[in-house]
Amino acid sequence: MTIPHLPPVSERRRFEGFGKQALETGRNRLLVTAAVITLAFGGIGVRLIDLAVVGGNENDDRATLVTQPPALVSRADIVDRNGVVLASSLPTASLYADPSEVIDAQSAAKKISSIFSDVDEAKLAKNLVKGGRFLWIKRNLSPEQQLAANRLGLPGFAFLKEERRIYPHGALSAHVLGATDIDGNGISGVERYFDHRLRQNEKPLALAIDVRVQSILRAELSAAMSEFKAIGAAGVVFDVRTGETVALASLPDFDPNDRGSYKGEARFNRATKGVYEMGSTFKLFTAAMALDSGTVNMKGGYDAAKPIRIARFTINDFHGQNRWLTVPEIIVHSSNIGAAKMAMDVGKAGQQDYLRKFGLMREAALELPEIGRPLLPSKWRDINTMTISYGHGIAVSPVQLAAAIGSLVNGGILRPATLLRHEDGMPIAGEQIISTETSYKMRQLMRLVVAKGTGRKAAAKGYYVGGKTGTAEKQYGGRYKKSAKISSFVGAFPIQDPRYVVFAMVDEPIGNKRTFNYATGGWVAAPIVSRVVSQMGPLLGIEPLIGGEEPLALPMIDDERRKKKVSAGLIKKASVASGVVRPAGAVKKPPSIPVETPKAPVRQKTKAEPPPKDLKDETPDDRIARKTREALEQAFAAQ
Amino acid sequence: MAAAVSVALFVVKYSVQDLDDQMRSLTRDIAETREGIHVLKSEWSHLNQPERLRHLAGKYLEVGPLDAERVGSADRILDGLAERKEQEVVDAEAVSSAGKAKP
């Protein structure tokens, strides 16, 4: 390649000095530019490799965004222990208006009120004319309502995406769940207690409640409430192994879907907020503290022949036996005199100490805002120790009582009641408060009450229930009112290895013909517990014991005890026959309650002999066996 | 080379845009489906109210609540079977001896 127009060498040489300098400068500039550009491209190249091969951080962010879509609703669901939805937020639309943009207020108001019957036309027109920038028309529309409103095509009206809290089971566990206001803020119950948690964490909140058991409990309480024309009822089912509250109901209740029903008496949670003088169920605590501290044993007892007179008061027995009673007899006959004497032996300080351990002196730690503080005597005198021994002069909430009874039967460990489901494998908090031996004795005593005492109506088919009745007169203006009672029953089952405590309470029941006008715990509340147990037992797969003998060795009481002593030559036979042991007080006893013992075993041992005593109990197999035997006997007789 | 790169870039850009649209519509679908599931879960819970099921079962089915006699362990069934078998043997022997005894 030739370079054209190249100046002659002489000319080139002429420019040498000046030209060379210019060239040098140019080349230096080029070099600098090249270096800068190389650096820039190098940088880009490095970054490209970094992004494409090594992988940049930004990509990670994007990937997680796709796998974690934003929360659907701003409030988490509440579910039961099996994952059944109890409360959920559904996205809905709400209609609002911007009055400054509304053209014809009158016709708009007319059209709107034609769709929504509950919107007042005149009032809406007035508000629209008044002006402003924001006005709610109607909140939480159904999809059809939204469509209809949209079809009107009114300027100045628009929808806002909102949420509506719904409760698929209605009133079923109203007092546990509580309620929310129109803006979705919890105003009571779990909704309020866990308000923050429900907003922060979109994972469903799992409660300990089992809707099936809850449904049984509520239905039975409701049936008893209407049968006995009561003003209210409450019930608790408590798992003694974990402290979980499997069911908790208080009547009357409300439908949390319907804010109008959340008012007055229906808002009051009798099971947790209400505190009541529980009456005789407290004798179990008295017996437990006496047996545990060793002031008396199961064979020991107290003289309950005469009423106790102290200060202005007289302590008397309802089912008067008027004789010396053993500890089991005091519990079975629900003797106030015996309980009072037992408590006096334990002493004031001991009683307070035990009641504190049972969790009856402070409010329950249940996860609800509606928790009642127990009512205790302001000054604890001897008379208080006596009356508290049989459940008067101290008022506690049903949930406190259920948890405390749980500790009596589960081997002596108090587990605080909780509304949250216990995660499998998590350690269970609990405190040993009485010895396992005392707990065993308490189970014997509780079983005795149902087998032979005031709690016979709590017996359930297939399950051995133990428990105690309680009947207390309510105080009105500082005076006890005979006609206003709190009738309750607290039971535990299966009593040989308790799983659940079932508590039922009816507020101001009125006796009826069927109960011979009695409205006591044994007549009113014990049957509720019986029905709840016989329904929930099979449901939860608790193995029943059909037929057979009592699973616990029961201490002997009354005549059995005497008869044994007679046969041992301890008491003269005459005293049994002469009726000395059955004083006049016995006449006052209520009509004897028919015993609802579990039916005879389905399958009787069908040995070839002897023949079944009662043909009514015969099973088809028995009949075949008997016929065969009869045929044989005839055949032999003929020979 | 510049031409090749620009063509490639063009193709990639449009395919990315397509994918982006696809993703957006899928995301929308997912959100709608999730909302649907959410609503249906509540409805399912509503329809499964124990009280309602009890009522329906009473109306349309010949089943009642489980009672304690129907709950038990496998051992009880086995014991029962063994007992029944024993009884059958006894009965059979008795019948056959009776048959012989009869003239």
Can you walk me through this structure?
Chain A has helices at about 10-55, 55-65, 105-115, 120-130, 145-150, 175, 190-195, 195-200, 210-225, 280-295, 325-330, 335-345, 350-355, 380-390, 400-410, 435-450, 520-525, 525-540, 560-565, 575, 620-639; strands spanning about 80, 85-95, 135-140, 155-165, 205, 230-240, 245-250, 300-305, 310, 315, 325, 415, 430, 465-475, 480-495, 500-505. Chain A is of the alpha+beta class. Chain A has 3 domains: about 80-210, Penicillin-binding protein 2a (Domain 2) (Alpha-Beta Complex); about 215-565, Beta-lactamase; about 605-639, no CATH class. In chain A, strand 14 (about 465-475) and strand 15 form a beta hairpin. Chain A is elongated and about 150 Å long. Chain B has about 100 residues and is mainly alpha-helical. Chain B folds into 2 domains: about 1-65; about 70-105. Chain B is built from 3 helices and no strands. Chain B has helices spanning about 1-45, 50-60, 75-100. The chains are: A alpha+beta (about 650), B mainly alpha (about 100). The interface of A and B includes residues 72, 85, 216, 628 and 629 of A.
Describe the protein's topology.
The complex is a heterodimer of chains A (639) and B (103).
Chain A: H1 9-55, H2 57-67, E1 78-79, E2 85-97, H3 105-115, H4 121-130, E3 135-141, H5 143-152, E4 157-166, H6 174-177, H7 189-193, H8 195-200, E5 205-206, H9 211-227, E6 232-239, E7 245-251, H10 282-293, E8 301-303, E9 308-310, E10 313-315, E11 324-326, H11 327-332, H12 336-346, H13 348-357, H14 382-389, H15 398-409, E12 413-414, E13 431-432, H16 436-452, E14 466-476, E15 479-493, E16 500-507, H17 521-524, H18 526-539, H19 558-567, H20 573-577, H21 620-638
Helix pairs in contact in A: 3-4, 9-18, 10-12, 10-13, 10-16, 12-14
Chain B: H1 2-47, H2 50-60, H3 74-101
Low-confidence residue ranges of chain B:
none
How far apart lie the N and C ends of chain A?
148 Å
So what's the oligomer here? heterodimer
Shape verdict of chain B: elongated
> Mind telling me which CATH architecture of the largest domain in chain A this is?
3-Layer(aba) Sandwich
Number of helices of chain A: 21
What level of helicity do the residues of chain B show?
over 70%
| Structural class estimated from helices and strands of chain B | mainly alpha
N to C succession of SSEs of chain B: HHH
User: Beta-sheet strand percentage of chain A?
Assistant: 15-25%
Count of DSSP E strands of chain A?
Answer: 16
Q: What is the average per-residue confidence, as pLDDT of chain B, rounded to a whole number?
A: 82
Radius of gyration of chain B: 36 Å
Question: CATH superfamily assignment of the largest domain in chain A?
Answer: DD-peptidase/beta-lactamase superfamily
Helix content estimate of chain A: 25-40%
Biggest contact:
A-B, 50 and 39 residues
End-to-end gap of chain B: 119 Å
Query: Which structural class do the helices and strands of chain A define?
Result: alpha+beta
Return the CATH topology of the largest domain in chain A: Beta-lactamase
